[in-house]
Amino acid sequence: MKALRVLPDPLAVTAAVKKSWHPDVCRVTVGALLSFLPKVSPVKHSLLVGAAGALLVVPLATPATPAGADPPEQVVNGTFDSGTDPWWWTGNTPASAVGGRLCATVPAGTPNAWNAIIGQNAITLQAGESYRLAFTASATTPATMRANVQLADPPYTPELSAPTALTTTPKAFSYTFKAAASTTAGQVAFQLGGGTTVWTVCLDDVSLQGGTPRPVNVPDIHPRVQVNQVGYLTEGPKEATVVTKATASLPWQLRNAAGVVVAQGNTTPRGVDPTSGQNVHTVDFGRYRVAGTGLTLMADGETSVPFDIGVNAAYEKLRVDALSFYYTQRSGIAILGSIAPGYGRAAGHLGVPPNRGDTDTPCQVGVCDYRLDVRGGWYDAGDHGKYVVNGGIAVYQLMSTFERTKLALVEPGRLGDGSLRIPEHGNQVPDVLDEARWELEFMLRMQVPAGRPLAGMVHHKVHDQNWTGLPLDPAADPQPRELHPPSTAATLNFAAVAAQGARIFQPYDKAFAAKLLDAARTAWTAAAAHPAIYAPSSDHIGGGAYDDADVSDEFYWAAAELYLSTGERAYQDAVMASPWHTADVFRPQGFDWKFTATAGRLDLATVPSGLPDRARVRQSVVDGAQRYLATLRANPYGLAYAPASGRFDWGSNNLVLNNLVVLATAFDLTGSVAFRDGVASGMDYLLGRNALNQSYVTGFGKQAAHNQHSRMYAHQLNPALPSPPAGSLAGGPNSSAQDPAATRIPPGCPPQFCYIDDIEGWSTNEIAINWNATLSWVSSFLADQGDGGPVPAPACSVSYRNVVDFGRGFLATATVRNTSGRTLHDWKLRYAYTGTQKVDRVVDGTVRQTAASVEVTPGHSRLRPGESTSILLVGRVDWGPNTVPAVFWCG
Ligand code: 9MR
């Protein structure tokens, strides 16, 4: 029989938590991290669950244990009824929840008891208080384990260490002790090693009672009228969510900053939202289209935080901030406070002690016998690791943010040189590409040099030998740095972005473009020769694993980018032969570093090419977007993310945003405003219209995340340090949250509640380069949408044809027809090449080409309505396909 445990927290409502252990918990056992645990915040509120499921927040004093009641429970999920979280185990002792018990296979031949452990961290103990550790345990063969309550970090001081003889019959044990020291970084640890035979242990009903009640974080979700705290586009959709007990429609009022009611209506009851467990209504005030600041929305006796209407400038700022995030993440360069005020620091990992990398970095023992200079790149996230697959997807989306300006109807000149806060101004290269290059140069260094075993493959990652604690300036990191083995995933990911970079950098730096293309081809060939070298999930000490045992999607993505950049038949064949080419890549759970087929599909749809089934590919994006739109509309928070499991993944905010990338791409392909409205509404969720009533982007919104997990921006631990820079995205709710902060989130949290803005919350609240890349892409898209009004009809239609292709030269015609209904005077034609084309001259007119952007001033300077004219272009191609540009501007 299971022990009956009454959860004091009504948020622990439904959903059984099923989850496998995640390797990152080892940070806890290895790092000095927990010694910096912040003071836990007292319980300020309690959530009441109404009959209809509505959650209301009422203030509540910190509960005291009533006389005669059971002492407080310190262990979370000791009955394993809700899976295994937040328990962890050492990699040699795989465990799982079996029939409501936790069972693990213990290896033979480990020298010490502590070489095989099942444990739970973030246990709070108070000096002088009495505690009772109780559990039921059995073994498949008689064995002895140690039941410990101790510090989770060196010196691992034990408060209790009890040898416990186990037999094949489950038996209840209990031990009492008085804590000698106070800590919030304690640990319950069952030490199982030291045996001579393999055996299986099963644990159940683990309980540690005593002390004061375990702190539970219950967020303040007031005011219960949840809005995009930054605001809404003047002409765009405007929706809000009201958390209420009411089941019938309620009146709402929109007030301007002076308190005058400017619009009103009735809410739409939406029932209980499964992602939050809340009973909610929605408000649609989209018909109000007047720009203003400090507006508020009132319903059910609550008033929203103030917000603005007419926020294009805010999205413009967000695009710059989100993209400027990368400068302060740079490794191997001093960060200048003059460029990033408040964030200046010494260069990290340039071989200057105490750093022990990255200029002459050895492999892990037995992996290789050479050393590489792998300086540069970006720090991945809150840690100082550098991982090729994550750097790759991030740099892909940064370059895609730029390339989109050539593929969509975006005013030319956006995102140019001088647009971001980085040092490389004035070099005529768009800043976003300067930033992308910083990572690409690092990735090139990660490729195994010619003449070495596995030449052409790419090392999966480089990072510290052991996890470090927080805070830690990169330049002060004393850990040895190590290269981890090459992997097929990293090699293909690199092939993809190097090929993508080759076409994008060509107009700015031919030599660099050629180097990238060469490296991409080499990587592709190496991956084809070694198609199944997988990064293992067990490689998680000192850095994240980024494990991936299915690289079919990476093969597809790499083939797609190589094909788009070269037009070569072999890569086209690889694209067409991939099972991903026709499969549904627009999964409810989105795409990320591990699932990259979507990246390939999006580029095949948008970058011009001669792909035989390009029309079908483009339609597949529109179909995928339709489904995300339906998801978004069905969710009362406008959430475009609905994993089939009903559980939110690590980095859910990034997955939400990537689904918005698909919607945005469908808008770019079709001009259908419904998709663009979907992106705008979808962004509401990230900026405050969510169950926690907070923005997940630092500096944007009245209540915004600002304690993200980071060794550099550790203001929460040391007030002298900064918070993350404005425009930093938090990973977001994670149903499998597991970190010291997450133990304060009640198990079984409805997905939207599985989050805490705490620096120790790496599984819900980290910053990361891939996540900010998606934020950059989407905010850049929104910044390009003006006030969100109707899409203006273009002034003309353009038909561009390659008439003659001779070797490297070409003749092309652009036939322009005035479709505007008015006469165009002194008009110009503008477009951008996605290949290496360069126009030398036009017949009857003049041409100016800056990088890939072409501006033609035709001799035929007056074009009457309905009139057409043809412009003859004479040019050449350096390498790659001579593809027709994607979009044209005229007028
Ligand atoms: O973003 C990654 C997520 O998809 C994985 O589930 C998780 C666990 O492997 O790791 C995340 O990446 C982290 C990486 O392992 C280490 N650096 C910080 C990354 C963001 O949390």
Automatic annotation (TrEMBL):
Top-rank taxon of the source lineage equals Bacteria
Q: What keywords are annotated for this sequence in UniProt? A: Carbohydrate metabolism, Cellulose degradation, Glycosidase, Hydrolase, Polysaccharide degradation
Keyword Nucleotide-binding listed: no
- CBM2 domain location is 789-891
Q: Which SMART domains match?
A: CBD_II
Gene3D superfamilies (alphabetical): 1.50.10.10, 2.60.40.290, Galactose-binding domain-like, Immunoglobulins
UniProt-listed PROSITE patterns: CBM2, GH9_3
Q: What spans are recorded as compositionally biased (Low complexity)? A: 726-737
Q: Which residues are in coiled coils?
A: none
UniProt keyword RNA-binding, yes or no: no
Q: Which family does it belong to?
A: Belongs to the glycosyl hydrolase 9 (cellulase E) family.
Q: What is this protein called?
A: Endoglucanase
Q: Which organism is it from?
A: Dactylosporangium darangshiense
